[in-house]
Amino acid sequence: MTAISPPGSTKFQIDLRRHLRENEEDRDLTRVICEVADASKYIINAIRTGDLGLAGTSNLYGENQLALDVLSDRILRKRLIHSGVVANILSEESEEIIKVGNGGKYSVAFDPLDGSSLVDVNLAVGTIVTIFEGEDLLQSGRNQVAAMYILYGPRTSLVYSTGRGVHEFAMNQLMEFTLTRENIQLKPSGNIYSPGGQRNLYTEGTEKYVSYLEEKGCKLRYSGGFVPDINQVLLKGSGIFLYPHLKNKPNGKLRLIFELNPMAYLIEQAGGKASTGRQSILDLKPNSIDDCAPIFIGCREDVEKAEEFIARFG
Length: 314
Ligand code: AHG
Ligand code: MN
Ligand code: MN
Ligand code: MN
Known about the structure:
This protein is an alpha+beta fold and 314 residues long. It is 30% helix and 24% strand. β9 and β10 form a beta hairpin. The structure holds 2,5-anhydro-1,6-di-O-phosphono-D-glucitol (AHG) and manganese (II) ion (MN) (3 copies). The site of one manganese (II) ion has 2 residues, from loops. One manganese (II) ion binds next to β5. Belongs to the FBPase class 1 family.
């Protein structure tokens, strides 16, 4: 049953409601998604015209923050804090969880600008968002109520799921998001591989797996941006992205709460799989806000094959 939209809804909100959870007039969830969508318009402007330099500060992960990281973070934080429906916020660029304290129904974690170091060479970047009900942002990814990303590429697109399939919107000339794809599904196996991290630091299992992919003729597609790299696997319905455990980084590089969980949620909603190489990403229980994990994510059979190599060779 399609939820009836309140009067004055925009086309985006009406299209969003086509897939919100059954029989749930959940305006607050729609509100969070719309706030992120609106914030993206200011982030686009920042990317196009903003300062490409360093902010002079670093984040919890020891990364030198770019002015764009800080500005994108501020744009998103402000919108979510003033939305009235968000209780707690966690950002890649915040040192701790931000308690908004207005009794909001949802808590939101986000990577305000993923791949920010790619903007100065004009490659695609993105915003990644995960949404939980309640105040706890250290829940396992299995408990997410929604996840989404915005991809700032040649086109600006928004991909989201609230647990009823994965759907894509594209931004038109009026900067409105219009529905372009519904119920995106991955094939069981694909022919693209997107290998993150330094190959010389791959463990034996990952090395043997990637060689297996190459021998079977898979095409290497890696931009260095998590959002465009995942978006390619999702929209082509084919392939696998990996940022594995490395000899010097047993937990890989990508952050569990605001990078891996939202993408794992979306890919699983599209019929794919997301694994550390040994277990499902969505079953991990974060111990702290800066947890990282290795990831093999994409077509189900391709991820299962990776798990076989990791089980045998480490
Ligand atoms: P962020 O810009 O949010 O810090 O994330 C960058 C991440 C992700 O976009 C990508 O998959 C990964 O860094 C690439 O890492 P390498 O540069 O080590 O390949
Ligand atoms: Mn960063
Ligand atoms: Mn990131
Ligand atoms: Mn980032």
